[in-house]
Amino acid sequence: MVETEPCGKVVHYSSVKAEPVSPDMATATRIRWLIGPSDEPPLFYMRMFEVDPGGHINAHFHPWEHEIYVLEGSGRVRIGGRIHEVRAGYVVFIPPNVEHEYWAGDEGLRFLCMIPKEPTAEKRDEPIRC
Length: 130
Ligand code: MN
Fold this sequence. Notes:
Blueprint: E1 19-20, E2 26-35, E3 44-60, E4 66-79, E5 82-87, E6 91-94, E7 100-116
Antiparallel strand pairs: 1-2, 2-3, 3-7, 4-5, 4-6, 4-7
Bound molecules: manganese (II) ion.
């Protein structure tokens, strides 16, 4: 990992370590913290998710949004009560506290996912229905 630099950071994504996402959260999924805590950005983190064919990210919700761009492959995303088919080029916005989950298609699914560093909504026991 690159040390925090006052003049920023420029790297190829492949130089950022792909870490397995814990099995209680996902199957066959890795995450790269392209811009993460060690970079000490003021507001946002940028992560890249790589979900192998047949992989799944379990249903969950949290008091911050996801801003997603699908780079490669295809799959399905559930946001609240709706399931959306996505593929490379699709943009996905998941509002805070809405339950979501992901399934990779036959080619796998690779996407960028931006999150704020701090929660932006009240923490809830139950997700917002939509
Ligand atoms: Mn999430």
